[in-house]
Specification:
The chain has 285 residues and is an alpha/beta fold. The chain is 43% helix and 18% strand. It has 2 domains: 39 residues; 236 residues, Alpha/Beta hydrolase fold, catalytic domain (Rossmann fold). The strands form 2 sheets. The chain has an 8-stranded mixed β-sheet, sandwiched between helices. A two-stranded parallel ribbon has the order 1-5.
């Protein structure tokens, strides 16, 4: 009997040690995964490409290819596409993937609205120098704005700051730092940590996030006219985040519902997208 009891005790002790080893292994694996995500955040947020695949010339649009210098000395690439007797001047802050050559459809639409467009590549994108950072993208947008005002002589009230996806956060920050006539946020998210919790629900995103892009903290302090555009079908940035930005924003503000996915919604929506923006500009701009 005593022998059996001793055997059971040894087995129980061995089982407990095995459980501890397994738990320690799981904790170590989780810690390594968290560390990997922490260190790879920039690669998971920015997806730049260097190759310029086309230019506005492919649309038979005249344009100027320019180089801007940021406040911290980085040279970034940009295009200025003038519109005859322009109603306004739109600064285009694009999303986190590709480069300016992948935004020709949008450039064409804004040109049809009789808007002159200044679109730039963030540092590390296209022909721009450097590597992208949150602070750097803000400085890149400032350089684009300063070019319009100081070089082109455009009055701030004639400037529309437009941002899509990641660019919506850059556009909101630019509107905080510089005067403008209107702000358009398309497919915008509340903040990177909020978005991260959706893709990594079991990660301590709030504590390990090295990027913020917290548009939700800014829209309530921006008093210029604001248009928020979002599709309920957006598979990357939840529609509820676009609505939350709108609800948090102070007046004047409008909301335009489009259809389609995150990257192609503006095209799939057709005239409703075009007319929605035109209606907003006619009302406020």
């Amino acid at each position: 009997m005593q022998t059996a009891i001793s055997f059971l005790r040894r087995e129980a002790s061995r089982f407990r040690r095995m459980i501890v080893i397994v738990l320690c292994g799981l904790l170590l694996a989780y810690a390594l995964l968290v560390a990997f995500v922490y260190l790879r955040q920039a690669k998971m947020l920015y997806f730049p490409t260097r190759q310029i695949e086309a230019t506005p010339a492919n649309l038979n649009l005249p344009f100027d290819e320019i180089t801007l210098q940021t406040a911290d000395g980085v040279h970034i690439s940009a295009w200025f596409i003038p519109a005859p007797q322009a109603k306004g001047f739109l600064i285009f802050c694009h999303g986190n993937a590709g480069n300016i050559s992948h935004r020709l459809d949008s450039i064409r639409l804004f040109h049809e609205m009789n808007l002159s467009v200044l679109i730039f590549d963030y540092r590390g994108y296209g022909r721009s120098e450097g590597e992208p950072t949150e602070k750097g993208t803000y400085l890149d947008a400032e350089a684009a704005y300063d070019f319009l005002v100081k070089v082109k002589g455009v009055a701030p009230y004639r400037i529309i700051v437009f941002g899509r996806s990641l660019g919506s956060a850059v556009a909101a920050e630019l509107a905080m730092r510089r005067d403008a006539g209107a702000l358009i946020i398309e497919s915008g998210f509340t903040s990177v940590p909020d978005l991260g919790r959706i893709f990594f629900p079991h990660m301590p995103v709030k504590f390990i996030s090295r990027f913020h892009y917290a548009t939700i903290d800014k829209v309530g302090r921006l008093h210029l006219p604001k248009l928020f555009i979002h599709s309920p079908d957006d598979e990357i940035v939840p529609y509820v985040q676009g609505r939350k930005l709108f609800e948090t924003a102070c007046e004047p503000k409008e909301f335009l519902i489009i259809r389609g996915d995150h990257n192609g919604g503006f095209l799939m929506s057709g005239d409703s997208y075009l007319h929605g923006i035109e209606k907003f500009l006619e009302k406020y701009f």
